[in-house]
Specification:
single chain, mainly alpha, Arc Repressor Mutant, subunit A, 2 domains, three-stranded antiparallel beta sheet, two-stranded antiparallel sheet, 7 strands, 44% helix, flat, binds zinc ion
């Protein structure tokens, strides 16, 4: 039996891509990891790979993000976010050809009614673990990359005439929020929301002000998210009649029937695309990676 391999095409485009070291590394990892046939167990479609565990890949968050954006912009990959981490899909076979096996007979409906071995998923998924590790911060360590990224995101959303805060001070302020227990996605949600709020967009004029009023803003946003959730009273989990977990999101199928899902039984194909998730994403400017982890 032949050992599995992937093809690297000898083309100018390949050579050009190699010159950007980090993007090349990430592209190679995606090609190496990508599922050829898709995986129901891990919720992957053909050509898709988990990439959210940037620390395992020896990348900083900012380098990983930049490389991912570049690959997306150059048309090599598309990405989607799930509550088990970011998934990249290799959509260009001009450089790496992994011989993707198209299986179009597997429709969305079939995929959602199939029942994967859930326990297996939970114990073998490394991405979830990574997210949790990221939230656990050591006392006394220097601001991590995500602090700088978040601080920059805040600055970009400030009104004109903002008070300038240098990068280190701004990252330090964000670091304090994280140490107090704010999650990265929660901060992102507040960043996405405050600049569109008639009151906060006028009073938040610096990163310091953002940090000062963070708790109040987070509380208000949490109430808004809760209001969205209660507007659609959840039904029982449609995946398994015996499931008693609280449902978190719903989707309509081709026949207009509403399907409710708990976090465990959420169908991977529509993950993060259910009606409630969409409403929350819109409220937070599409900035959050994990709408289900918000404000719980
Ligand atoms: Zn369920």
């Amino acid at each position: 039996m032949v050992e599995p391999y992937i093809m690297l095409m000898r083309k100018p485009k390949s050579f050009e891509s190699m010159l950007d070291a980090t993007a090349w590394k990430l592209l190679s990892i995606i090609a190496f990891r990508a599922s050829r046939t898709g995986s129901t167990v891990y919720g992957l479609e053909p050509g898709e790979a988990f990439v959210g565990d940037y620390k395992n890949l020896k990348l900083t968050r900012s380098k990983y993000r930049t490389a991912l954006k570049k690959l997306e912009k150059r048309g090599f990959i598309t990405t989607r976010t799930t509550n088990r981490g970011t998934i990249a899909k290799l959509v260009d076979s001009e450089v790496y050809d992994i011989n993707i096996e198209a299986n179009n007979h597997q429709t969305d409906h079939q995929a959602t009614t199939r029942r994967p071995s859930d326990d297996h998923q939970v114990t073998t998924n490394n991405n979830d673990k990574n997210v949790k590790n990221e939230k656990k911060r050591e006392e006394g360590s220097a601001p991590a990359d995500d602090c700088f990224v978040l601080a920059k995101m805040i600055k970009q959303r400030l009104p004109a005439g903002q008070t300038e805060t240098d990068a280190d001070t701004a990252a330090g302020l964000v670091d304090k929020l994280l140490r107090r227990g704010a999650a990265v996605d929660e901060i992102k949600a507040v960043i996405g929301w405050f600049a569109d709020d008639p009151f906060w967009r006028r009073s938040i004029t610096s990163v310091a002000k953002f940090a000062e009023h963070y708790d109040t803003m987070a509380r208000q946003l949490a109430a808004k998210i809760e209001a969205i959730r209660t507007r659609f009273p959840p039904g029982p989990c449609s995946r398994d009649r015996n499931c008693t977990r609280p449902t978190i999101d719903y989707e309509h199928d081709d026949y207009g029937k509403r399907w409710w899902w708990c976090q465990k039984h959420y169908p991977f194909k529509v993950e993060g695309k259910g009606r409630l998730a969409k409403a929350i994403r819109e409220l937070t400017g599409n900035m959050v990676d994990d709408v289900y982890g918000l404000f719980k």
